Amino acid sequence: MSIPTAGGMELGSQRTAGRPPTPREANVASHGDRERFERHASEALARNEALGAVTWLASTQVDLAYVLATEGFAGDGDRAADLLAACLATCHERDMPALANRAESVRGRLAAPSSP
Predict the structure, then answer these.
(1) What is the DSSP letter of 28?
(2) Residue 18: phi, psi to the nearest 5?
(3) What is the arithmetic mean of pLDDT over 2-28?
(4) pLDDT per residue over 5-16, tens digit each?
């Protein structure tokens, strides 16, 4: 079970030591509470950007895009596509092929037709 804390999140026995939770961690912690998830994800993006943590920002962007692609609420596809474009630009600038592959995989989920 994930437990949000003032300095980060506790994930089972793992502690995130003051860094903002990744969108996946926040999604797990919020157990379907969309508003809480959005707050955590926005905080993670803002902190990574403010710190100039470009590689963490790109990783957070792909994690959030994955959750948005999976959830499928109205407008999520466009938001995920924007996040993936930003992530991929960083991946190409910083030579991060593994993260670029993850981003392309999520992009494939967006392109795939939805099942009824």
Answers:
(1) H
(2) 85, -15
(3) 47
(4) 444 444 333 444
